Amino acid sequence: MRILLIHADRFSFRVTGETSVALPAELEKAGSEGQTGEALVVFLAAEKGDDKDVGSVAGQAVGEILNLASQVQTHTVVVYPYAHLSSTLSSPRVAVRVLDAVCDGLKARDDLKVIRAPFGYYKAFEISCKGHPLSELAKTITPSKEAPDKADTAESQALKAEKTLKGHEVSVPVRKIGQSDFGSTAASY
Fold first, then answer.
1. Is residue 36 within 8 Å of 115, Cβ to Cβ?
2. Per-residue model confidence as pLDDT tens digits over 6-18
3. E strands along the chain, which residues?
């Protein structure tokens, strides 16, 4: 799963049309429009592999969201499905399961207001990001039961090649640099 978290002064969305994977039940869950003032807006995309442990992925996402919501001291979270965060999307069925689990995990908190945008619909949105150091964060979440990626554990070709290189001593003459070495451009920096 990929998530993009934006701490916003305001956020609004409205459905503009159906995609090929639109489900009427999504409009019942989320509605065709929504708006809020200050909130943590969570754009999310479920990815291939998330189906290995939907509960783990959703639980980790909820943890990240709650942690940041606490840090920025907001009590409103917008969950917005956003396929553009990944090029390796899960199936729509898995994406809806992940979205449901994330929303359920957030709604279990009495101190949070959760707004959900519908999955499978084209939407227009407006956002005003606060612009402080924690106002824009991106995270990648993988199922906890997933084996480590081979690329993480295997030695890269570059490291293997580097070990076979032979060192050669290089001598570089050293001289003192004076103001005249920079000419008239030194003042322009």
1. yes
2. 999 999 999 999 9
3. 2-18, 33-36, 39-45, 76-81, 113-116, 121-129, 136-140
176 falls within a domain: no
Show the tokens assigned to 179.
Answer: 């103001």
Q: Name which of 70, 73, 67, 46 is nearest 57 in CA terms.
A: 46
What pLDDT is stored for residue 156 in this prediction? 47
Q: How many domains does the chain have?
A: 1
Cβ contacts of residue 37 below 8 Å, gap of 6+? 9, 10, 76
Q: Which domain holds residue 16?
A: 2-146
Token reading at 67: 């942690």
In a domain? residue 126:
yes
The pLDDT tens digits for 49-89 are 999 999 999 999 999 999 999 999 999 999 999 999 999 99
154 within some domain:
no
Q: Tell me, what CATH number does 18's domain have?
A: 3.50.80.10
**How confident is the model at residue 150, as a pLDDT?**
40
Of 92 and 151, which is predicted with more confidence? 92
Is residue 91 pLDDT above 90, yes or no? yes
Instruction: Measure the CA angle with vertex 96, ends 148 and 49; round to 5°.
Output: 15
Closest residue by Cα to residue 125 from 12, 9, 1: 12
Inter-axis angle of helices 92-107 and 54-72, nearest 10: 40
